[in-house]
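hey so u asked for the seq, here:
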Amino acid sequence: MSLTLRVSMGLVAGLLLGFAVSTSHSPWLIPIPAIFDPIGAVFVNAIRVAVIPLIVSSLIVGIAAGSNDARRIRKRSGRAFALILSVMLMAAMFAFFHLWLRRRIC
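ran it, structure tokens below
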């Protein structure tokens, strides 16, 4: 059996088991998701820690591989940095607006 098939089967089995536990009203099954919450949080944070440096390093390598001229690389990296900052600024503005709107409604 291939690795892809085994991983897919594990994902489907986990999905079905999680659905069964969450829809069950059994008193001994209800505390089980609370046990796995910290494990899931650690897993998601570990993915973030691994993925963000990979994306940044691939951006740097992609910019540097596009040209041999230092001026062009500097110009491209400046544009990439400005783009990243503008996207982060828009995300922060959206978050603050959402928080302001939520506090105003509640």
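The radius of gyration is 22 Å. The helical segments are 3-23, 32-65, 70-105.
lmk if thats what u needed
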